[in-house]
Design a protein that fits this description.
The protein has 117 residues and is of the alpha/beta class. The protein has one domain (2-116). It has two helices and six strands; from the N terminus they run E-E-H-E-E-H-E-E. Strands 2-1-3-4-5-6 form a six-stranded mixed sheet, sandwiched between helices. The longest helix is centred in the last third of the chain and has 14 residues, at 82-95. The chain is globular, with a radius of gyration of 13 Å.
């Protein structure tokens, strides 16, 4: 499965992903300054699950889950450090059934996550 990390996710979070998963950061694609729509479009076109802290992407009216390969939104405090973000993301990755990600919007919090289809 391919994952795309948004600019608001630390680049070092790439280390959390193990085979057979592949992960790219928007910096790898020179999209770090791109608009949400452009990043979501790249993820959609390339069948990548997008991981972000941008809650605008959790709006299922603007970004219908059925049209995307997964939108994962971390709902965490703005002051979280890179290590805090990686801890929350790693906890999610350890507990998610990866087959539930495509065509879903997933809201990830500190100790739980919710899946919207």
């Amino acid at each position: 499965m391919l994952f795309l990390l948004d600019a608001n996710i630390p680049y070092s979070a790439k280390e959390l992903f193990k085979d057979p998963h592949e992960v790219l950061h928007v910096r790898d694609l020179n999209l770090q300054d791109a608009q949400d729509l452009d990043i979501a479009a790249w993820a959609k076109q390339n069948k990548a699950a997008l991981i972000t802290r941008d809650f605008d992407l959790a709006n299922i009216l603007n970004f219908p889950p059925k049209l995307y390969f997964g939108i994962i939104v971390l709902k965490i405090p703005y002051f979280y450090t890179a290590s805090d973000i990686k801890r929350v993301l790693n906890n999610f990755l350890q507990n998610i059934d990866f087959s539930s990600i495509p065509q879903s919007t997933i809201i990830v919090e500190e100790t739980r996550f919710r899946i919207k289809k």
